[in-house]
Design a protein that fits this description.
The protein is mainly β and about 200 residues long. It has one domain: Alpha-Beta Horseshoe (Leucine-rich repeat, LRR (right-handed beta-alpha superhelix)), CATH 3.80.10. The protein is about 0% helix and about 25% strand. The protein has strands at about 10, 20, 30-35, 40, 55-60, 65, 80, 85-90, 105, 110, 130-135, 155, 165, 175-180, 185. It has an eight-stranded parallel beta sheet, with no helix packed on it. The chain has a five-stranded parallel beta sheet with strand order 2-4-6-8-10, with no helix packed on it. A two-stranded parallel sheet has the order 13-15. The radius of gyration is 17 Å and the shape is globular. The protein starts with 8 loop residues before the first strand and ends in a 15-residue tail after the last strand. The model has no long low-confidence stretch (mean pLDDT about 90). InterPro entries: Leu-rich_rpt (IPR001611), LRR_dom_sf (IPR032675), LRR_R13L4/SHOC2-like (IPR055414), LRR_Rcpt-Like_S/T_Kinase (IPR051824).
């Protein structure tokens, strides 16, 4: 496949592939890499940062392990990043803050630990969907979420510890807000009534 110099889409969604991500792909001009629903394992390779044309990276529902490489922060054109349903661990690399075109970020069902770095969300002004359900993080939720003016769906669950209701008033276009098993305390803010929610 490394000889396919014009290849910009690889989509092996929902197969039975195993092994690791081939290093031969490091030189391809990929814009879309979808490996959703396979049996791939190992860590995300550091050379992933070479795929600077990537707009969509979907590794959901595999058997990947280890820490997320800081090189993910080099994917400056990335709009969609799905890493749910693996066994990633450690902290989120702060280099993710450089992904200022990201629109859809999902890391559900993993084994991360620690708190979510505050600075990650500050530049994610295009983000409309954020999912961090059963990911292993500690509360509280990052205050930077308040600045995500395009956010329409937020799903956080199973946060370790307690937290107050997150400040969400920057966005008026909410559709789905899930805060399940987050140790919420205090009252429900009145501004929630201003949202056009379909799911709460």
């Amino acid at each position: 496949m490394a000889r396919l110099r014009n290849l910009n889409i690889i989509d092996f969604t929902r197969n039975y592939l195993n092994g690791t991500i081939p290093v031969e792909w490091a030189t391809l001009p990929l814009m879309n890499l979808s490996l959703l629903g396979n049996r791939l394992s190992g860590e995300i390779p550091q050379w992933i940062g070479n795929l600077t044309n990537l707009k969509n990276l979907d590794l959901e529902a595999n058997q990947f392990t280890g820490h997320l490489p800081q090189e993910l922060g080099e994917l400056l054109n990335l709009e969609i990043l799905h890493l749910s349903s693996n066994t990633f661990s450690g902290n989120l690399p702060v280099d993710l803050a450089k992904l200022n075109k990201i629109q859809d970020f999902r890391i559900n069902d993993n084994r991360f630990n620690g708190k979510i770095p505050e600075r990650i969300f500050q530049n994610w002004t295009y983000l409309y969907r954020l999912e961090m359900q059963a990911s292993g993080f500690e509360g509280p939720s990052p205050s930077g979420i308040a600045f995500l003016k395009n956010l329409t769906e937020l799903r956080i669950s199973d946060i370790n510890g307690t937290m107050s209701f997150p400040q969400l008033s920057a966005s008026k276009i909410w559709r789905s807000l899930i805060l399940r098993n987050c140790g919420l305390s205090g009252g429900i803010p009145e501004y929630i009534g201003n949202f056009d929610l379909k799911y709460l």
